[in-house]
TrEMBL record:
Annotated EC: 2.7.1.107
Transmembrane segments: 21-41
Lineage: Eukaryota, Metazoa, Chordata, Craniata, Vertebrata
Repressor listed as a keyword: no
Name of one Pfam family that matches: DAGK_cat
Family: Belongs to the eukaryotic diacylglycerol kinase family.
Gene it is expressed from: DGKE
Membrane topology: Single-pass membrane protein
Record-given protein name: Diacylglycerol kinase
Pathway membership, UniProt: Glycerolipid metabolism; Lipid metabolism; glycerolipid metabolism
CDD domains listed in its UniProt record: C1_DGKepsilon_typeIII_rpt1, C1_DGKepsilon_typeIII_rpt2
Cellular component aspect of the GO annotation: cytosol; glutamatergic synapse; membrane; nucleoplasm
Domain of life: Eukaryota
Length: 571
């Protein structure tokens, strides 16, 4: 009996059960891991294939899915779960249909194809499906895109929409008039004609403008995608949908000097430029325009409008384009505002900083000023902000966060007062006449009405008589402040600045100390020096009368009307 019990223990199912448990435990751990690795491999492989397709494609594809932009594939007509859309022509396709879409559909042609001869018109370029909401058929005037499927057509140039059943052969091959923004679009046939003229070494493009209409003012858009709220990427795609993609430039990839050479392909004094960025970006573009004058291209100089994407946007505010853009109005309205804007002049100033010391071999610092120059607490805030943004640029990509950081440094300066007794450290001369300075902590030299993100500094509380401030009269306004707290009081109209005077030439002499300085938001720490500000040139700008920071700000509007009248007299 003992032998039988011993043999039965050898063939007991317990070891088998233990091995079975271990095996299934291992499977339960390894199978998810293997599935995850396989999915990662497939995903990376799919991304490589997608990148290869996107790199070779003539379309400007952007990723889309069911949640970000519900659309239908223009090839298979199915709902897109994972795919791409072209932000130039609006074509939407599923991932599996990308190659077919590249072969079957052309994107917007920036220049018309052909061998010889001159063209004066073009036909519609229709894309089926995914028409904009609230669009209406050009034939029957009924709403388009109401059915939950791929239906109806849209012209990528004039943006007209038409029902499937209303599409006729005459309309399908009809002449495209380029729609509402035809006065801003550079037509592909115009660029074709220019290329033909250049082959014959002719540059009189005025004759070609007749085919584009008598009110044709072609628009070039320069966008800085790193400004403010980083909205530049979205705006680029929206503008490419409405205009010729050749008119749109991203300044992180193409410099303003290179982009503005497109103006030389256009009739003299016809081009307009929309700068999407902060005041620093506007200054960068205006410097490139000044270089055009040096190159002898003065007859091609454009007028400049602003879409404010920066933090302060004081120049934009002065010219009526608002204190900041956050997507509150559609890009179509922005283009309408540019078409309706009036031309005015803006003074630009040369700021020369000469370091003291006979043996100082460093070169002079020379800046161009559009907005203001300052030394004191506001320059110190700008310097602290700039230093920390250089260390961690990704943390300063939001306009509200940027202003909060400025507020923090302003509060700190109220307690520390690093710039006190400035009147003992600096001498001020206005048009060669020395000014006796009262006790103050900062000096601000103004060219425009707004300062500090929307404050009309020269006006203050508006309860005192003072000479009017304009940005085209060749005069600078010079004021003093008693610290960061005084600046805050002026911004909320609880105090007036210390008005030191107006002048054509301003000279500041920093004696023996080191002080923060800034020109148009570009700060630095400066030792003993002489700062001389003189008039440099005028810039041709566009003024929009439809938006102001203060609703009751009648004086600003009257100033702009005076500026416009003065411009008309000069011309």
């Amino acid at each position: 009996m003992e032998g039988v019990e011993r043999n039965s223990s050898i063939f007991s199912p317990r070891p088998f059960q233990e091995w079975s448990l271990a095996f299934w435990t291992l499977c339960s751990v390894m199978v998810p891991v293997l599935i995850t690795l396989w999915c990662s491999f497939r995903r990376s492989r799919r991304q490589e294939l997608m990148q290869d397709i996107l790199r070779k494609s003539k379309h400007n594809w952007q990723d889309t899915d069911l949640f970000s932009q519900p659309t239908y594939c223009c090839i298979c007509s199915l709902h897109i779960l994972q795919g791409a859309f072209c932000n130039c022509c609006g074509l939407c396709v599923d991932e599996e249909c990308l190659k077919k879409a590249d072969r079957r559909f052309l994107c917007k042609e920036i220049i018309m194809r052909g061998e010889s001869g001159f063209r004066t018109s073009m036909v519609h370029q229709w894309i089926r499906g995914n028409v904009p909401l609230c669009s209406y058929c050009v034939v029957c005037k009924q709403q388009c895109g109401t059915q939950p499927k791929l239906c109806d057509y849209r012209c990528v140039w004039c943006q007209q929409t038409v029902h499937d059943e209303c599409m006729q052969s005459a309309l399908k091959n009809g002449t495209c008039e380029l729609g509402e923004f035809r006065n801003l679009i550079i037509p592909p046939y115009y660029l074709f004609n220019v290329s033909q003229m250049r082959k014959d070494k002719r540059v009189d493009y005025g004759k070609l403008a007749a085919s584009c209409g008598k009110n044709w003012t072609p628009l070039i858009i320069l966008a800085n995608t790193r400004s403010g709220n980083n909205m530049g990427e979205t705006l680029l795609g929206q503008f490419k949908m409405l205009l010729n993609p050749i008119q749109i430039f991203e300044l992180t990839k193409t410099t303003p000097a290179k982009a503005l050479q497109l103006c030389t392909w256009l009739p003299c004094n016809s081009a307009r430029v929309l700068v999407c960025g902060g005041d620093g970006t506007v200054g960068w573009v205006l410097d490139a325009i000044d270089d055009m004058k040096i190159k002898g291209q003065e007859r091609y100089i454009p007028q400049v409008a602003i879409l404010p994407l920066g933090t302060g946007n004081d120049l934009s505010n002065t010219l009526g384009w608002g204190a900041g853009y956050a997507g509150e109005i559609p890009v179509e309205q922005i283009l309408r505002n540019v078409m309706d804007a009036d031309g005015i002049k803006l003074d630009r100033w040369k700021v020369q900083v000469t370091n003291k010391g006979y043996y100082n071999l460093r070169k002079l610092k020379v800046f161009t000023m559009n907005n203001y120059f300052s030394t004191g607490p506001d320059a110190l805030m700008a310097l602290n902000f700039h230093t920390h943004r250089e260390k961690s640029p990704s943390l300063f990509s939001n306009r509200i966060i940027n202003k909060a950081v400025y507020f923090f440094y302003g509060t700190k300066d109220c307690l520390v007062q690093e710039c006190k007794d400035l009147n003992k450290k600096i001498e001020l001369e206005l048009d060669g006449e020395r000014i006796d300075l009262p006790s103050l902590e900062g000096i601000i030299v103004l060219n425009i009405a707004y300062w500090g993100g929307g404050c009309r500094l020269w006006e203050g509380m508006g309860d005192e008589l003072y000479p009017p401030a304009r940005h085209d009269d060749g005069l600078l306004e010079v004021v003093g402040v008693n610290g960061s707290f005084h600046c805050a009081q002026i911004q909320v109209k609880l105090a007036n600045p210390i008005r030191l005077g107006q002048a054509h030439t301003v000279r500041l002499i920093l004696k023996n100390s080191k002080m923060p300085m800034q020109v148009d938001g570009e700060p630095w720490a400066q030792g003993p020096c002489t700062v001389t500000i003189t008039h440099k040139t005028h810039a041709l700008m566009l003024y929009h009368s439809g938006e102001q920071t203060d609703d009751d700000d009648v004086s600003s509007v009257s100033e702009q009307e005076l500026a416009k009248d003065q411009t008309d007299e000069d011309t």
